[in-house]
UniProtKB/TrEMBL annotation:
Domain Molybdopterin oxidoreductase: 112-551
Segments crossing the lipid bilayer: none
UniProt KW keywords: Iron, Iron-sulfur, Metal-binding
Name assigned to this protein: FdhF/YdeP family oxidoreductase
One Pfam family matching this protein: Molybdopterin
Source organism of the structure: Nonomuraea rosea
Keyword Metal-binding: yes
Length: 734
């Protein structure tokens, strides 16, 4: 990595960007210091000894495997209080009416859940009970009921995922799902189908020195801040950065890396080429880029001929798609598509990075297929500085599906078939269901229709992460039993129900005896040791909660589902998931193994039955926009997942109620900044205030989860069953 100054990449000559709108990362350090008052030594040990429980970039303490510099971001700092705060006063839960209406941040700030708590139907609140009573009550209900289990991905280690899915299957169902369902499930479907592996094909180091990095529907400046440091080094190495998005994200335009002297002082220009597309217009744009590559002979023919199949079918389908059709869908011009095609044609190496802007559509799988087509056309797989990267926003997402905590997959990502079910039945010593279970969204539907009796939710908050919060609330209220496993309070715990509600206190990853592991975006399985410090009441590790529930519900299987500790779980993972070879040997700080090595498919073969990657025929979706309507997308601000940290986004000055709108549309409608407006989608409405932003005309953005009230809970993709986090709306001044 070059240490020489490069003024060509500087964002501003103002020292530290004084007077410019940007986040104050040094203020974040001060806020973090204040937030852990009383537990600062413990917080320091977590930062130095633990694997980050924020995004999935992955660390060993405050170091990583990409650069020889500090790896620390404000998201991790903001999560410190959750891991270090004292227990809440459980008397506050005796009558939860006093907590009604409190924001999620206020509920979290009350402190850690210290004891099992029970609320009977019709009672005003919760009372403390013993673990024995709590487990006995839950096991008795689960033994005979139709139930589902959901696990969030914030801080969730592989050991919890694996033990939980095994326990749920011992109880006779595949109704277990995790947060990957509403993040990257379309990536899983499309990548398995096209290249045979549902994982990033390269490493973060491949960003640095690649000719080109293309970000599509992804905003690391908000969601994976340390990645901006990687981009700083990539720019120093001569890498060009292209961005395909409806909104020109300010943080992806210019960024001040606080821990690097040059970038902290002068900032860094990140995006070299911006390509504006409509919300939902990615396929139109990417198909147009591919069409140009083919017409201009910019395809790696040797790679396509020797390592892929389906090229001619794809080319014939593209030939039938007119430029007018692709331009109308994408909102971009034929010339814009040519510019990116030319960049890809000239590049000897390229990395494609995408996130929720690509996946959270009813046609999310086809969005991903269109990206894969571009990578295959350029031969950008299996070698240095090339690859496909569905970047992960949570530290536990990648491992969740690979451990089998998935309604449509078994450990190792194997599909649920009679043959695979028999394989695990033989391994575990009990029958494993042979048909797919209910996904996270299907569970809510089943609860709403009366076809689900109980739900075990480990972390997460359906009221904030899924479309139509009122629909989710009604569904939760109809269950005979809800078991909420978490480290802090959430609003979904307070929903009164037709049956019992149990709160079970969980340990953080830093509290678990024997340590745990996470799998990062680059397929690196990283050990995170137990960190010495205070403990919250009677909290248990989630792997133990799930296995104990199964052991009590089915005593005859108790010896088959219980574990002595996390080392035993890792040993079983290595047997159940062969490509996780080496996880059993991870036992101390810094231990890690990257399955598949730096690159997948470096040997020239893909993980498909014939060893060939597959081009896909991707037809443009039929999107109709009546005159005067807008496509609105949900965005993230100063937050982590649905945990909002600040009302104001330092990158663009947007408050939580902001409706981001292009200046063209705002002028056309006569709406100044701050104007109150109503967005309407059918009977669904949202009130906000206009904020002009560099957005494609005809498109709007509102914050998530606040904007979820506009979303139709029935709109999901056909294969992955991911909700559509976009809506067609009209705008009315208030």
């Amino acid at each position: 990595m070059s240490k020489r100054l490069n003024p060509a990449n500087w964002a501003s000559l103002r020292p530290f960007g004084i007077g410019l709108r940007k986040p104050n990362n040094y203020l974040e350090l001060w806020k973090a210091f204040r937030s852990v008052k009383g537990n600062r030594r413990y917080a320091w040990r977590i930062l130095n000894q633990g694997t980050c429980d924020g995004c999935a970039l992955g660390t060993q303490g405050m170091r990583d495997w990409t650069m020889d510099e500090i790896h620390l971001c404000n998201i991790r700092l903001r999560l410190l209080p959750l891991n270090t705060m004292p227990a809440l006063d459980v008397s506050l839960l005796s009558d939860v009416s006093g907590l009604a209406g409190k924001r999620s941040a206020e509920l979290r700030d009350l402190g850690r859940l210290p004891y099992p708590m029970l609320r009977r139907a019709g009672e005003p609140g919760f009372r403390r009970i013993s673990w024995d009573e709590a487990l006995g009550l839950a096991a008795g209900e689960l033994r005979e009921s139709r139930f589902g289990a959901y696990l969030t991905s914030r801080g969730m280690p592989n050991e919890n995922y694996y033990a939980a899915q095994k326990a749920v299957r011992a109880l006779g169902t595949n109704n277990i799902d995790n947060a990957a369902r509403i993040c990257h499930s379309p990536s899983t479907v499309a990548l398995k189908e096209t290249i045979g592996a549902a994982a990033t094909t390269c490493s973060y180091t491949d960003w640095i020195g690649s000719d080109l990095i293309v970000f599509i529907g992804s905003n690391p400046s908000n969601n994976q801040p340390v990645a901006m440091k990687y981009l700083y080094h990539a720019k120093k190495a001569g890498t060009r950065v292209a961005m395909v998005n409806a909104y020109r994200e300010p943080g992806m335009d210019k960024y001040w890396v606080p821990s690097n002297a040059e970038s902290a002082l002068f900032g860094t220009k990140i995006t070299d080429e911006f390509f504006g597309v409509n919300v939902g217009g990615d396929i139109g744009f990417l198909n147009g880029v591919l069409k140009h590559m083919i017409e201009n002979d910019w395809v790696d023919k040797e790679f396509a001929d020797q390592r892929t199949t389906g090229f001619e079918e794809m080319r014939a389908a593209l030939a039938g798609q007119t430029w007018a059709e692709l331009e109308a869908l994408s909102g971009a011009s034929r010339d814009d598509m040519f510019r990116l095609a030319e960049l890809l044609g000239a590049a000897k190496s390229a990395v494609f990075v995408w996130s929720m802007g690509v996946t959270q559509h009813t046609y999310g799988e086809d969005n991903v297929r269109s990206i894969v087509n571009l990578a295959l056309a350029g031969g950008f797989l299996g070698r240095d500085r090339c690859g496909l990267m569905p970047i992960r926003g949570h530290s536990g997402v990648q491992g969740g599906a690979e451990m089998g905590a998935y309604a449509t997959g078994l450990p190792g990502g194997l599909p649920i078939t009679p043959e695979n079910a028999t394989k695990f039945a033989d391994m575990w010593g009990f029958e494993v269901p042979a048909t797919p279970g209910l996904t996270a969204t299907d569970m809510i539907d089943a609860a709403h229709s009366g076809d689900l009796d109980a739900l075990v939710s480990s972390g997460g908050n359906f009221l904030e992460v899924l479309p139509d919060p009122a629909y989710c609330r009604e569904a939760l209220s109809r269950l005979r039993l809800r078991v909420h496993i978490d480290i802090v309070l959430s609003s979904q715990m307070l929903v009164p129900g037709a049956g019992d509600v149990l709160l079970l206190p969980a340990q953080t990853r830093y509290e678990m005896v024997g340590g745990v592991t996470e799998t990062s975006t680059e397929r690196r399985i990283i050990f995170s040791p137990e960190v010495e410090g205070p403990r919250a009441g009677e909290a248990w590790p989630e792997w133990k909660i799930f296995t104990e529930l199964a052991a009590r519900a089915r005593p005859e299987l108790s010896a088959k589902v219980r574990f002595t500790g996390t080392p035993q779980i890792r040993a079983e993972i290595e047997r159940a998931v062969p490509f996780y070879e080496g996880i059993a040997g991870l036992a101390k700080f810094g231990d890690n193994v990257q399955y598949g090595g730096r690159h997948l498919f470096a040997d020239g073969r893909f993980q498909t039955p014939d060893g060939l990657a597959r081009f896909s025929v991707v037809e443009p979706p039929a999107l109709e926009r009546p005159d005067g309507s807008f496509m609105v997308a949900t965005r993230r601000g100063k937050q982590f997942n649905s945990m909002v940290h600040e009302r104001l986004d330092g990158f663009n000055g947007a408050t939580r109620e902001a409706v981001l709108m292009s200046p063209y549309d705002a002028d056309r409608l006569g709406l100044p900044d701050g104007a109150a407006v109503e967005l309407r989608s059918g009977e669904r409405t949202y009130h906000g205030k206009v904020l002009r932003a560099p957005l494609m005309p005809g498109n709007l953005q509102v914050h998530w989860p606040e904007g979820n009230v506009l979303l139709d809970e029935a709109r999901r993709s056909a294969q992955a069953r991911i909700p559509d986090y976009n809506a067609l709306v009209t705008v009315r001044p208030l």
